[in-house]
Structures are given as C-alpha cells and as structure tokens.
Amino acid sequence: DIQMTQSPSSLSAYVGDRVTITCRASQSITSYLNWYQQRPGKAPSLLIYIASNLQSGVSSRFSGSGSGTDFTLTISGLQPEDFATYYCLQTYSTPYTFGQGTKLEI
Amino acid sequence: QVTLRESGPALVKSTETLRLTCTFSGFSLPTKWMRVAWLRQPPGKTLEWLARLDWDGDRHYSTSLETRLSISKDPFTNQVVLTMTNMDPVDTAIYYCARMRADRSGNRFYFDFWGQGILVTVSS
Q: Which of A74, A92, B50, B82 is packed most tightly, with the most Cβ within 10 A?
C-alpha cells in the first residue's frame, strides 16, 4: 500500500495569511494526488484534483503543485471559512490512501 | 445535478452484517469512466477507502478488508450496495459513498461528489 505522510498535523494562522500543507507519498504517484477540505460534521469537499487542477467553483485562493512523491497545497489570503481540516488522497493505485489530515485553526 | 445519499442502519451488533445503500442521481454508472466508491471515517480519524464499482462492472476492495466486503449495483435502480460482514466495534465510523470520475485523459480518476455520510455504530 502507498503511504501518504501529510504535514503539519495542525496549523495556526490568521485571516489574510498564506499557508502551505505538504503531502509525501511513499512511492511515485506521478500526478494522482487530490486535496479535500472537511468542515466539522460535513463530508469532504474536493479542492484540487490531479495535483494542480482547481475544482469548479473553488476559490482561486487554493492552489496545488507537485509530482512524483512531493505535493503542496497552498491557501493564499486565508478567509474565516477556510479554517477546517485538509486531507490529501492518492488515486494512483488501490487501495487509495489518505494523509492523516491537517487541522487549520485560527 | 449530481447527488449521492447513504442509507442503512445506524446501529448494528458485533458479528452482524452491515448493508448500506448509496442512492445516486445526476449520472449513470454504466457511463464510461464512471465509478462509485465507499469510504469511511472513524470518529476523529482520517478517511479510509473501502471499495469501488466501475462502469464496466469491475470491483476493487481494500486489501485489509476484502474478505468482509462486497459491492454491487441494483440492475434496475441507481443504487450501489455495500455489505460488510462480521462487524466489530472498531468498524464504528461515518460511511460515505462518492462518485469517481476521470479527467479529460480518461486515465486519471478522482472523487468529485460525496454523500453526506451515515454514522454506523457497532455495539458489543
């Protein structure tokens, strides 16, 4: 199974800040990396697919980059609604695996 | 508009079999490159992928759970059913179904729409 190591596990920031979350795969997954946002009590919501593609309807403050084993989610100009938990997910091969999550707090 | 909704029991007992139904709309599973999957999330923990059913009937399962899982589609409705045998309290989680689709290349897949989830508690 491919292991996904996500860091940091938690992050404190202010409205207006720029933050970066990283995800590292235990082997190359080319560009098969997706990012999700999950608010408390809600299902995950797709932000970025295939490493760098912004899902329709998602704010351009979110961006993704990387390939191979190292990937990054960047959120620019943090807004109050961005404080949530973020997960990376590899869909390169089954079993699909998630990172442990990053809780973004004020 | 794509929607998915999970249904099933909120409480099961140890050793029982869980049967969950995912009712979806806004897309057709036989459409090429479409897939429906089940995932779960124990309270306070990360997500775990369980099973996948493809447009051509192909099935894939979690390595650690494949002996307990079965995924199928009702041939007459837009419903995908997941059964999990021999339930245990560690299986307590929110269970989600999600649509998986391909990008323009047709080779790279991702989950784009999710159901709201259903909390299943397993009592001992």
A: B50
